[in-house]
Amino acid sequence: MSDTIDAIAEIFTWIGFGLGALLAVVALILRLADGTWVRTQGVVDEGPHGRLVRWFDDHAGGVGTAYLTHDQERRIGNAATADVYVRPGRHDRVRLTPGSPAVRAVGLLAAGLLALGVLALVTSLVLLFVRG
User: Per residue, what are the HEC states of the chain?
Assistant: First the structure.
């Protein structure tokens, strides 16, 4: 029975550290690919194809316009203005959060797997010292 627990702890250690490190690198690459998003004040307006947000791009100049998704419309509600995040130089994309949900999900999965690896390593070490 103790050999089985040792084997399971060893497998979870390798899976936790291996996949956790790999996903951490993927999360870093996704974060770098996501780029810089800056916060600005957007004006919500009715357009011919639905609600849209307009904003001034202070960094690159110009005025941006982007149609809202259904989820963004629901989150903004009936407000006339909203804090939005835009990419400097891009005048056609907007989001309501500073970070990407995909990057956040991969980062949390990486942290969870690394925590599993640490827990399995501690379990393995405790069992090693308990048995003498």
Answer: CHHHHHHHHHHHHHHHHHHHHHHHHHHHHHHHHHCCCEEEEEEEEEECCEEEEEEECCCCCCEEEEECCHHHHHHHCCCCEEEEEECCCCCCCCECCCCCHHHHHHHHHHHHHHHHHHHHHHHHHHHHHHHC
Q: Could you tell me the pLDDT band of residue 89, with boundaries at 50, 70 and 90?
A: confident
Cα-based angle 95, 92, 80 (whole degrees, multiple of 5): 55
pTM: 0.77
| 91: amino acid identity, one letter | H
Confidence at residue 130, expressed as pLDDT on a 0 to 100 scale: 87
If we measure between CA atoms, which residue out of 17, 63, 18 comes closest to residue 40? 63
* Confidence at residue 88, expressed as pLDDT on a 0 to 100 scale: 84
Average pLDDT, the chain: 91
